[in-house]
Amino acid sequence: MKTIAARLILGVVFPAMLASAAPAQTYPSRPITAIIPFAGGSASDVVSRIMLERMSKSMGQPIIVENRPGAGGNSGTMAAARAAPDGYTIVGAGSGPIAANISLYKNLGYDPYKDLAIISPFAGFTIVVVASANAKINSLKELVASAKAAPGTLNYGSVGIGSSQHLAGEYFAQVTGTKLTHVPYRNIAQYGPDLIAGTVPLGFQWFPNVSAPIQGGGAKVLGVAGNERLAALPDSPTTTEAGLPEYKMSGWFALAAPGGTPLPILERLNKELNAALQDPTVRQAFAKAGAAPIALTLEAAKKFHADEIVLYRDVITKAGIAQIE
pTM of this prediction? Predict the structure, then answer.
């Protein structure tokens, strides 16, 4: 009887195992959609397209980028979290919508850690502190002095509440003992003109988000919040060089898939991501965009994700940011 039962179990389980393995072996057999939950031309969009183009070539299928901005990246990320877990929908997952926002929103609509499977972070962005060319602030020391002289009157913009740029501003205020006013925008295209005009004179931004105002003379760089100068901004000082060594801040962008995506598919995507980031052409394009390539294993990426959720929760809690309904 035991032998018969075992055969019956194998008769059910083994074909099911083969059925689940088959799609992974032939993956991808059709185009993949990559949701970017931010506007076209944003920092996340720029680097994602660079990497995904290289991945599509080696995978033999197009990866079609679909920009779905809104709600600080939450809208597009939620759409990806609810997509079929078959590897044909992936998402560019920012540190806001998959790490910080779980602490910022009372009802996010998805659980970033449970409803998404992180493949790997792939781009790190050192925060660049910028000021409008019209602002009478020409250094970090002058910024701190101005902020202390008139608490809450200096505004800075970001791509939304909970974005790494928002929290970079909050962290700057914590480090310097100042009070700044955050102005969230739906997308980066709306912020640029206000920065140039001086309506919202400050930014704690990823370089691609402010490259046009900087290069066009509408904004000036006060400091780069990393240990080294950016290749894209060789003449701009680090925050250490500018006299504020305690302020170091960066954001990141990752690739993720809906939770429940088969492990072999996640492994394939992780392998292709890692290979793409070894391509000298990709690395050169990242450097031009002010981004540093990051590539982790699936297990290391999962731990990274969990640690970042805790890190942002601590920054948000210390800043006293009220949860969003």
Answer: 0.81
